[in-house]
Amino acid sequence: MLAGPYATMLLADLGAEVIKIEPPAGEISRQVSDSYFASLNRNKRSVRLDLSSDEGSRRLGELAADSHALLVNMKPSVIRKLGLTYENLRRFNEKIVCVALTGYGLDGGDDPAFDYVVQAATGVAAMTGDPAGPPTLPGYSSADNSTGLTAALGLLAQIVSGRGGQVDVSLRDVMLSQLNYRASAYLNDGAAPQRYPFGAHSYYVPAQLFPTADGYLALFITHDGFWKSFSGEAGIGGFEKMAERAERRDEVLNLVTAVLATDTAKNWEARLRPLGIPAAAVRSLPEALEETPEVVVTAGDQKLIGSPIKVAGYVPEYRPAPVLDEYSAGLTRRS
């Protein structure tokens, strides 16, 4: 519903012709809302195929013969049953790239693998939230979106290779990969992740959310130069080296918390940004969108967030999400 559609929408925004193959009743996310479907499927064409039928398989072969790639976001057993693999489709096109985007890999079984389930299964939820509270899930589909990006990268890399072949990308593997330095610390040093209050970073101090006189401030001091600039503005002395700040974490955080409580989050942001210090007042999504109207585009009657990839000399044309089966006539002409 999200990972595969997001991957292919990014490619469509960059100018690829993306044909969305939907079952006879249409893809299930059409039932969620028009805005949900549009946010993941703009700039595509739609063709309705019953891939379990001989006619559907024939038309799939015709599409494969004339395509660079096929990206599938289904259970492994369904992918194989419907012949949506390179092993099956290479007879139509030796250079086609077949990307399987699944929960646990093509050989990983059919266990359900929605975003929140994968966040729970890979340790993401366990390391998120206040240490005195329950595990917490991020407020958006981080596993689905990250896997969509990874699948699009794998698809393009294999096309550039010119070899064709099967690409296997799973939500589980992508999320474990994104835990890079956390996993490395455990595998090499035996340091299991722990939660800190206000989402504090495990290495850098101070690097977390702080309450202020009004609102919360994200402050991210990653080296001694940042600390020097911040401590000068905040009137804090000492703790000049990163190792000392880490060793005396509680003392540093108590001092910084007390100082930041003397002004508002937005005022601190205005004071610290000109000094080159990474700091931002916590905003709601509506507030963030009001401050960055340039990221909003119009596709048909829907307002959406545009492509995050900017290419010099290229301006995407944002077309609305497709009506179900609108491309059947075009597919017939091509065949």
From TrEMBL:
<dbReference type="InterPro" id="IPR044855">
    <property type="entry name" value="CoA-Trfase_III_dom3_sf"/>
</dbReference>
<dbReference type="InterPro" id="IPR023606">
    <property type="entry name" value="CoA-Trfase_III_dom_1_sf"/>
</dbReference>
<dbReference type="GO" id="GO:0016740">
    <property type="term" value="F:transferase activity"/>
</dbReference>
<dbReference type="InterPro" id="IPR050483">
    <property type="entry name" value="CoA-transferase_III_domain"/>
</dbReference>
<protein>
    <submittedName>
        <fullName>CoA transferase</fullName>
    </submittedName>
</protein>
<dbReference type="InterPro" id="IPR003673">
    <property type="entry name" value="CoA-Trfase_fam_III"/>
</dbReference>
<dbReference type="Pfam" id="PF02515">
    <property type="entry name" value="CoA_transf_3"/>
</dbReference>
<keyword id="KW-0808">Transferase</keyword>
